[in-house]
């Protein structure tokens, strides 16, 4: 880690240092918000949550080796130095922005209503063939996760791939002010956080706030298959990626090998080359061209990009397909919106096994929620789902849409406990089983049951 000390923290955050003067210039080696994750040399963030107050764990962090704490109040009987600020959240944003400014490496930001974590992993994998890459861990993509990611940078990193997730207007400005991306990837403008953002144009407006914090010479890498993104003027050089012919980088000759791999050719104005991505999901083909575009921007050869993509692996809860010994289980239950559910059903449709979709409520969709759920049911029928299992209040509209479009097998459960008890009778040997719903539905609790069938 580059030079960061309690004294610098106090100056950057506008806080007051409390402790022995000898501790002012002790080197900080990273930052954590959970005292259980603290390692010697870390800065510990005392954050007040709805249920837990991080200030209560400050001394536990010191016992684990924390160099300093960032706090909003005095720490009684503190076992180490700390910096008092008005707002820990505001302070860590200032610190993240300052620390990012110390690095002269390419920063790649990613956002989108669907596919941003997958795109992040694909881009990081591709770049990894040539560069030492820092990437967002799992989905630490919000106003706390982004500065924590930035503070994980050290002198060895040659590129940073930062996922940027939002839920309301202004969120992207907060993140972009810290990241200031040199390359900004936008995967899709879709039906997410509509309760806060209103409609697709609101989603576009919120996500494109990032361009106000980017240099004129920065580059936008946009999904050219998305009409809203295609029509948006970034004011910068733009590279379009996707499947359609109008894209600068596009996937052609797409082949899937069950749940084992996706193969495709990436076509651009400089030629065509074949890649293999050793993972499940037809959505990978639409996002791989973005990774190729970034690789080319950073001077990589086609062979280097090809080698890098071979190292791709999905993040847990996102199209992670495994064979349990009885069924092919597709864990895609981290979160859900209409676009991501349709992508998951499209991937399921490529499999030869009996296709079972366990779907739950998609939350925060606003006034049009009922119809958006009903459309998913119709789409599931179009994708050839053999058995649809729905659970939740809104999921009944998925059920109704499916039954209106086909005569396939379908059932509806009011709650997760009722569904869990019925699973042994509903799932058959050799089934391909997709599990997907919004995180608040807690469908991850169904996974151990399905693995144990």
Walk me through what this model shows:
The chain has about 450 residues and is of the alpha/beta class. The chain is built from 16 helices and 20 strands. The protein has helices at about 5-15, 60-65, 90-100, 115-125, 145-150, 170-180, 195, 200-205, 225-230, 285-295, 300-310, 340-350, 370-380, 395-405, 415-425, 445-450; strands at about 15-20, 30, 40-45, 70, 80-85, 105-110, 135, 160-165, 185, 220-225, 235-240, 250-255, 260-270, 270-275, 320-325, 330, 355-360, 385-390, 410-415, 430-435. The protein has a nine-stranded mixed beta sheet. Helix 4 crosses helix 11 and helix 13 packs across helix 14 (about 395-405). The longest helix has 15 residues, at about 285-295. It is globular and about 75 Å long. The termini are far apart.
Rg, Cα atoms, Å: 23 Å
| β-strand amount | 15-25%
User: Major sheet, described briefly?
Assistant: 9 strands, mixed
Question: Helix count, per DSSP?
Answer: 16
In round numbers, the mean pLDDT is 96
Class by SSE composition:
alpha/beta
Termini, distance in Å?
47 Å
**Spans of at least 5 consecutive residues with low confidence:** none
* General shape: globular
- What percent of residues adopt helix (DSSP H or I)? 25-40%
């Amino acid at each position: 880690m580059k030079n960061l000390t309690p004294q610098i923290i106090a100056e950057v955050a506008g806080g007051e240092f409390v402790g022995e003067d000898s501790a002012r210039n002790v080197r900080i080696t990273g930052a954590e918000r959970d005292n259980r994750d603290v390692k010697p040399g870390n800065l510990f963030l005392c954050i007040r949550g709805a249920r837990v107050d991080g200030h209560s764990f400050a001394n536990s962090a010191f016992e684990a080796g924390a160099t300093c704490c960032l706090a909003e109040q005095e720490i009684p009987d503190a076992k180490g130095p700390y910096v008092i600020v008005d707002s820990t959240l505001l302070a860590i944003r200032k610190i993240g922005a300052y620390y990012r400014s110390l690095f002269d490496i390419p920063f790649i930001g990613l956002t989108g209503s669907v596919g941003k974590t997958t795109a992040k992993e694909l881009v990081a994998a591709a770049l990894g063939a040539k560069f030492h890459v820092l990437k967002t861990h799992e989905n630490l993509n919000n106003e706390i996760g982004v500065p924590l990611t930035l503070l994980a940078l050290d002198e060895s990193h040659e590129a940073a791939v930062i996922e940027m997730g939002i839920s309301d207007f202004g969120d992207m400005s907060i993140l972009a002010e810290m990241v200031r991306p040199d390359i900004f990837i936008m995967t899709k403008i879709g039906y997410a956080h509509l309760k806060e953002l209103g409609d697709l144009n609101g989603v576009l407006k919120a996500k494109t706030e990032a361009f106000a914090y980017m240099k004129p010479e920065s580059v936008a890498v946009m999904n050219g298959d998305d009409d809203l993104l295609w029509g948006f003027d970034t004011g910068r050089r733009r590279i379009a990626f996707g499947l359609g012919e109008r894209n600068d980088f596009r996937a052609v000759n797409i082949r899937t090998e069950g749940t084992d791999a996706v193969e495709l050719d990436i076509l651009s104005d400089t030629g065509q080359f074949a890649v293999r991505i050793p993972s499940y999901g037809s959505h990978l083909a639409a996002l791989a061209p973005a990774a190729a575009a970034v690789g080319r921007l950073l001077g990589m050869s086609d062979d280097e990009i090809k080698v890098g993509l071979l190292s791709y692996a999905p993040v847990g809860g996102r199209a992670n397909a495994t064979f349990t010994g009885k069924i092919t289980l597709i864990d895609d239950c981290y979160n859900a919106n209409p676009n991501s559910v349709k992508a998951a059903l499209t991937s399921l449709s490529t499999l030869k096994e009996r296709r079972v979709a366990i779907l739950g409520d998609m939350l925060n969709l606003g006034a049009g929620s009922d119809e958006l759920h009903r459309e998913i049911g119709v789409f599931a029928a179009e994708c050839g789902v053999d058995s649809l299992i729905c659970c939740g209040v809104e999921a009944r509209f998925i059920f109704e849409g499916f039954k209106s479009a086909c005569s396939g097998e379908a059932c509806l459960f009011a709650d997760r406990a009722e569904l869990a008890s019925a699973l042994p009778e509903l799932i058959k040997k050799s089934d391909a089983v997709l599990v997907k719903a919004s995180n608040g539905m807690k469908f991850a609790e169904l996974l151990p049951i399905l693995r144990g069938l």
